[in-house]
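Example 334, ligand PMV.
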Amino acid sequence: MTTAIAHPNIALVKYWGKSDDRLMLPASGSLSLTLDVFPTRTSVALDDTLAHDAVQFDGSPAQPAVADRVTAFLDLVRERAGSRTHARVTTRNSVPTGAGLASSASGFAALAVAAAGAYGLQLDPPSLSRLARRGSGSAARSIVAGAAVWHAGDDRASFAEPVGRGPALGMVVVVVRAERKKVSSRDAMRRTRESSPYFDAWLRSSEADLDAMLAAFARDDFTAIGEITESNALRMHAAIQASRPPIRYLAPESLRVFDTAERLRADGLAAYATADAGPNVVLLCREGDVAEVRDEVVARLGLPDTAAIAAHAGPGAHTVPDARDAAGAQGAAA
Ligand code: PMV
């Protein structure tokens, strides 16, 4: 059995749109921060007696759609390993699933590392990132610690690697609603590509944002990083909202968080807002400002049900050395 842990990542320059649906190649590059909160822990154990994979998700058998996605992913791993053996997969997520908080990124990054280990594939980090990409595009970036850039390109070129420089960053995750999103990012990406008149403009502007973002990291320019982050997120949502039938992920509460970020900046606390395919908003700030940004956003929002979680740069997906220990912890939590 191999157990792996991975954390979600939040993109500062977003991935929205594929150039190849099967290979999960992004139509443009993206850049993200892997966090130190909401880990996913996944164990993969090969079992000769199984006629199909047995997938446990948060303590119960996975929904058929989830189990099918895991099996499709394991088929890729088995093909590379020359194996026909099925596996027991046990996953625990501590991120609200399907609420636009990147549970698929941590989930498939952890599964890629655990499955590669269990099936005996020796993969370097770029190869693990390419493999994780096939499960969920954004998972390619959760292989990497801290700031990661995921390249567009063909199957070989499209992997994530460390940005390797830039200011120390922090994030505050503002959970306005933890419910499941209405349209999956996979379906919504396709609908945006097929029906949004702004899709091509989004791709062109996002490519320019990635170049500007990498330059801002290289010169340690936090203000530029924040400004590009907030603008890039709003451009992605503009392209999504222009789909037909329309898709709108941002809720009234989400917009209040964007407004609060603007007010914090006016008062001298540098925080910039971003949001993925859901209503929750993440504030980007300097690492040393995380606690203050969290306290201020809670105080100013005045939404009693809103949780704000402080986060910092976290580790890339990795195996847990003592697998028995991990199994014990899972048993205790079940
Ligand atoms: O990999 P997916 O299907 O979870 O897509 C993620 C897309 C966004 O989270 C909205 C943007 C991003 O770059 O993470």
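Summary: The two ends are 18 Å apart (CA to CA).
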